[in-house]
Amino acid sequence: SIQETLRPITHICPAKSCPFKTMGTCNFILSAVCSYLLPPLGVYWRFGCGLEFCICLVLTILGYVPGLIYAICVIGCESPARKK
Questions:
Q1: What is the mean pLDDT of each run of 10 residues along the chain (84 residues)?
Q2: Which of 1, 24, 47, 49 is 20 to 30 A away from residue 58, measured at CA?
Q3: How many Cβ atoms are within 10 Å of 10's Cβ, its own excluded?
Q4: Hey, is 48 helix, strand or coil?
């Protein structure tokens, strides 16, 4: 099942709530794919135009790899529901 497949991923993430529990898997996959193509786009998809997006945009302007690493960390370990 999907729960058993995602179990190793949830142990890697240090966040208190796993992103797979707080949002749909399809949304997570789409934001991850968008982040690979253009890191700020994936962060915007998940968090909107906020601090995370601005940081990712600046890092991507400075270099693709720093923006990509930041986007992976933010999308993988932070829950968008924490802002509500």
A1: 47 50 70 87 87 93 93 83 56
A2: 24
A3: 14
A4: coil
The residue count for the chain: 84
Q: CA–CA separation, 18 vs 14, rounded Å?
A: 9
Tokens at residue 65, please? 């790899």
How many angstroms separate the first and last alpha carbons of the chain?
Answer: 30
Taking the model in full, what pTM does it have?
A: 0.65
CA dist 35 and 45 (Å) reads: 9
Query: Using an 8 Å Cβ cutoff, are 67 and 36 in contact?
Result: no
How far is 25 from 32, CA to CA, in rounded Å?
10
Distance CA 58, CA 31 (A): 18
